[in-house]
Specification:
This protein is of the alpha+beta class. It contains 23 helices and 28 strands. Helix 1 runs parallel beside helix 22 and helix 2 crosses helix 5.
C-alpha cells in the first residue's frame, strides 16, 4: 500500500506543477475596450498605479453592474468562500475538513436569510449580481478552481446577502460572554462576591465615548463548538473639528481591526455616476462602499459590542418546550450538507420562536436569540449612506442600520463632526449578562434614543470599542478604553493637529495598560530582585510595545505567565475559558481575554490577597507571591528576545493551510511571517490568541484619514486576489505606516461597451 500512496503523491505533485506551468492565473485586461453583455451604456474604468479602480457610469444599474464585474474579476474565489461559509456549504468545495464548520453554521441558523427586500434594494443587488455573472461567463477560472478541479457557480442576490451575513455574525456574537459567566459561576459559586473585579464592566477612569444563578442548566461539551466561530473585531475611529486642525478642516480617521487574510477583506474603489460619487473600501460580494466618503460627508465604524444576543434556558419534553412560562411546539428544520467526495449528510435542528436550540440534555436546553435572525439587510442603509449629503441624511441612513451595531463617526465639508451609535439593540427587563429562564425584549432603541453627539464642545470624538456612556444599558461587554484614552492624549497634546500627526497616532504602540501594571508591580519586583537587570530595565522602559523591544516581550510574557498562575491553576479548562480561550474545534476567543488582563491589574493595584487566595485555588496567598513567580517564569520564557521575534503577522491563503500546497505554490498561498509591534491595548492593534504571543489574530484591516482634500488610505496585502503585481504590493506600506491616495499616478483605462 505504501507504493500506492507514494504514487498518488507523485501524481498530485505532477498535476499541480502542470497547473502552474500550463494554467497560470489569467491577467486582467485593464486597457482598451471589451464588450460586456447586460450594460445599458458605456462604462469607464480607470485603474491607478496601485490597481485601485474608479468606475464612471451614467446610471446606477451600470455602476453596480460594473462593480460586481470587477469584484468577480479580482476576488471571486474569496467571494465564493464567504458565501459558502455563511450558507454552511464549504464542504461542497473543500471536503470533510470543513464539515464541522458547516454543521455549526447550519445549527446556529446563520444560513437562514431574510428574503424581504424593497424594490430599490432588489434593483441594486440584481445589478451587482448581473455584473458578477457577466464576468463569470467571460473570464477564466482562477488557480484555486483549477487546483480543486471545481466549477464556479453563478452568483445570486442571496449570495450577496450571505456575504453580508458573515460580517453581521462575526461582529455581534456576544453570547459567548454569557456562557463564560454561566460556566465559571456554576463551577465556582464563591467567586460571586469578587465578580465585579473578575468581570470589570467599567471603572471611574474609563473613558466613555459620550461623557455622562439559580437552577442553571449545566451544559456538557456539546455546546462548546458553537462558541468558537470568528474572531471578534476591534477598531479605532475618531473625528476632529477644524478648530483643532492645522488645515482648519475636520479630519476623520478609522482603522477597523479584523482577522488578517490573504487576500485582504477589503477592496478599495471609487464609484462615480448615477447619483453616486463615493470612495473607500468595499466588501467583495456586496455592492456599494462600506467605509469611506462621498463628495459631502465621510464616516468610519468601530464595533460597539452592543448586547444583541441572549441565551434562554428552556424545559423540553418530546416535541414541546416551555419558554417564558408558555408551552410551545418545536419547528423541525432539515438541513443537508453535501461533502465533496463523501456524499450527503442529513441534519435536523430544532427551532423555537426566539431562535435555534444550540444545546439540549436531560429535559433542558439552551436557545439562542439574536437580533440578526429577524433584522432587515444592510443594503438600504448602505445606499442611503453612500448618497447622504448632511448630518440629517447620515442619521437617517443609520436608522436603517440593523446589525452589527457600530460606533459611527461623521464629518462633512461644511465643518461639522458627529457620532451616532447605530443598530437594532433590544430593551430588556433584565441585565442581559447571564442566560435566563424568563425575559422579554421590550422593543428596540430608536435612533433618537441611541447615544449620539453633534459638534461637541471639546472639538473631537474618539471611539475604540470602549463604553458609550455611563447610563446606556445596551452595551455589556465593551473594552476598558486604553486605546481611546491614548488617542485622546495625543489629540490633546497638539495645539493644532495635522494629517501627519494622525498617521503617527494610528501607528502608536505606547501601552497605558503596561504603564499602570508596571507601576503596580515595580515595588514588589524591586524589593524581591533589587539587582536584577530586567527590573531596572522595566524602571526605565517607555511602555512602547515596539517590535524591537526586549522589555515589551518580557512584559507580554509576564502578563501571560502571571495570569496562568493567578487564575484557576488547578483547572486548566476553566482557566482557559476565563482567560478568553474558547473551547471547541474552531478556536475562537472571547472578550474575557481583555477582562482577565484588567482583573489582573486591579487585583495587583488593590493588593487584593483575599481575591488571590480564592482565584488561585489556594496555591498562592498574596499578590506578591504571584507577581514574583510570574516574573521568574517570564524571564525564563522570554530569554531576552525582542517582541517582534515572538509576535508576528502571518498571511495565509485558505489553500495555504495544506503543507504540500504551501510548499508547491509558495507566495501564491503563503506570504510569510512579519514581525509586528503593538498588542491588544495599543492604538496599533495587534492582538494575539489568548495565552499566546503569536500569530496576530486581529489587526487594522485598513486605515483611512479623510479631510476632503488630501485623503489617505491603505489596506493590505494588495488589491487583487490573483497572484500578480497587486497581490501583495501594499503590504510593506501598511507595515511601515505609509499611505496612498485613490487615483494616484498613471492610470490604465478600459471601456466596457454594451
Amino acid at each position: 500500500m505504501k507504493w500506492l500512496l507514494n504514487s498518488i503523491i507523485v501524481l498530485l505533485i505532477g498535476y499541480i506543477l502542470i497547473m502552474q506551468i500550463m494554467f497560470p492565473s489569467s491577467p486582467i485586461k485593464t486597457e482598451g475596450k471589451i464588450r460586456v453583455e447586460g450594460l445599458k451604456t458605456e462604462v469607464k474604468i480607470s485603474r491607478d498605479e496601485n490597481g485601485i479602480p474608479t468606475i464612471e457610469a451614467s446610471n446606477p444599474h451600470d455602476l453596480f453592474f460594473a462593480q460586481g464585474f470587477i469584484h468577480c474579476q479580482e476576488r471571486f474565489f474569496q467571494m465564493d468562500i464567504y458565501r459558502r461559509a455563511a450558507q454552511g456549504r464549504l464542504s461542497e468545495l473543500l471536503g470533510e475538513k470543513t464539515e464541522e464548520s458547516d454543521r455549526i453554521t447550519r445549527a446556529l441558523g446563520i444560513n437562514l436569510i431574510n428574503p424581504k427586500l424593497s424594490s430599490e434594494e432588489r434593483v441594486v443587488l440584481q445589478s451587482y449580481t448581473d455584473g458578477v455573472n457577466a464576468c463569470l461567463k467571460t473570464t477564466g477560472s482562477s488557480f484555486e478552481y483549477k487546483l480543486l478541479m471545481a466549477k464556479r457557480e453563478p452568483w445570486s442576490i442571496k449570495d450577496s446577502l450571505s456575504v453580508e451575513r458573515i460580517l453581521q455574525w462575526s461582529l455581534s456574537s456576544n453570547f459567548s460572554e454569557e456562557f463564560v459567566r454561566y460556566e465559571i459561576l456554576s463551577e465556582k459559586a464563591g467567586l460571586s462576591k469578587f465578580w465585579n473585579i473578575l468581570d470589570p464592566v467599567s471603572a471611574s477612569e474609563t473613558p466613555f465615548i459620550i461623557e455622562k444563578g439559580e437552577n442553571w442548566l449545566k451544559p456538557g461539551e456539546g455546546i462548546e463548538d458553537f462558541l468558537s466561530t470568528l474572531p471578534k473585531g476591534m477598531s479605532n475611529n475618531w473625528v476632529i473639528s477644524g478648530k483643532r486642525t492645522k488645515s482648519g478642516k475636520p479630519i476623520l480617521a478609522n482603522d477597523p481591526h479584523l482577522e488578517p487574510s490573504l487576500p485582504g477583506i477589503w477592496y478599495l474603489m471609487h464609484l462615480k455616476g448615477g447619483g453616486y460619487d463615493v470612495m473607500g473600501v468595499s466588501l467583495p460580494g456586496t455592492p456599494g462602499i462600506i467605509i469611506g466618503r462621498n463628495s459631502r460627508i465621510a464616516w468610519g465604524f468601530t464595533n460597539s459590542y452592543a448586547d444583541v444576543q441572549d441565551l434562554y434556558i428552556i424545559k423540553i419534553k418530546g416535541d414541546k418546550y416551555w419558554l417564558n412560562g408558555e408551552e410551545k411546539r418545536f419547528k423541525k428544520r432539515k438541513e443537508f450538507i453535501k461533502i465533496r467526495g463523501n456524499g450527503e449528510k442529513k441534519l435536523i435542528f430544532f427551532q423555537t420562536d426566539y431562535g435555534p436550540v444550540i444545546y439540549a440534555e436531560n429535559g433542558k436546553g439552551l436557545v439562542l436569540r439574536w437580533v440578526g435572525y429577524k433584522a432587515r439587510h444592510l443594503i438600504k442603509a448602505m445606499i442611503a449612506l453612500n448618497r447622504a449629503k448632511d448630518w440629517e441624511d447620515f442619521r437617517r441612513a443609520m436608522s436603517f442600520w440593523t446589525v452589527p451595531s457600530q460606533n459611527t463617526v461623521y464629518a462633512d465639508i461644511d465643518g461639522n463632526i458627529g457620532y451616532q451609535l447605530n443598530g437594532k439593540i433590544p430593551k430588556r427587563n433584565w441585565s442581559g449578562l447571564f442566560p435566563v429562564k424568563k425575559g422579554n425584549w421590550e422593543g428596540y432603541y430608536s435612533i433618537d434614543e441611541l447615544p449620539h453627539s453633534f459638534n461637541p464642545g471639546n472639538g473631537y470624538i474618539v471611539t475604540a470599542n470602549n463604553y458609550v456612556e455611563p447610563d446606556f444599558p445596551g452595551v455589556n461587554d465593551a473594552l476598558m478604553g486604553y486605546r481611546a484614552e491614548r488617542i485622546r492624549q495625543m489629540i490633546e497634546d497638539k495645539k493644532k493637529i495635522s494629517l501627519e500627526d494622525i498617521e503617527k497616532i494610528q501607528m502608536d504602540v505606547k501601552s497605558l495598560y503596561a504603564q499602570r501594571l508596571i507601576k503596580a508591580v515595580l515595588p514588589i519586583l524591586e524589593e524581591s530582585f533589587p539587582e536584577d537587570p530586567w527590573v531596572k530595565a522595566f524602571k526605565k522602559w517607555d511602555y512602547r510595545i515596539s517590535a524591537n523591544s526586549t522589555e515589551a516581550a518580557l512584559f507580554e510574557v509576564f502578563v501571560i505567565e502571571t495570569e496562568k498562575k493567578m487564575f484557576f491553576p488547578s483547572d486548566r479548562k476553566l482557566q482557559a475559558l476565563y482567560l478568553g480561550k474558547l473551547p471547541g474545534k474552531m478556536q475562537g476567543f472571547s472578550i474575557f481575554s481583555n477582562k482577565a488582563r484588567e482583573a489582573l491589574l486591579r487585583i495587583i493595584e488593590g493588593k487584593r490577597d483575599d481575591v488571590v487566595r480564592m482565584v488561585s485555588d489556594g496555591k498562592f496567598s498574596s499578590v506578591n507571591e504571584v507577581v514574583k513567580e510570574g516574573f521568574k517564569e517570564a524571564k525564563s520564557m522570554a530569554k531576552g528576545k525582542t517582541w517582534g521575534k515572538i509576535h508576528y503577522l502571518e498571511l495565509i491563503h485558505p489553500l495555504g493551510r495544506s503543507k504540500i500546497l504551501k510548499f508547491l505554490l509558495g507566495k501564491k498561498v503563503y506570504l510569510g511571517k512579519f514581525p509586528m509591534g503593538g498588542d491588544r491595548e495599543t492604538v496599533l492593534q495587534a492582538s494575539s490568541p489568548p495565552l499566546s504571543t503569536s500569530p496576530v489574530l486581529v489587526t487594522p484591516s485598513m486605515r483611512e484619514i479623510i479631510d476632503f482634500s488630501d485623503d489617505r488610505w491603505i489596506s493590505f496585502p494588495g488589491q487583487t486576489g490573483i497572484p500578480s503585481k497587486h497581490y501583495s504590493d501594499l503590504l510593506k506600506l501598511w507595515l511601515n505606516g505609509e499611505y496612498i491616495t485613490i487615483g494616484m499616478g498613471r492610470k490604465k483605462v478600459i471601456l466596457f461597451i454594451p
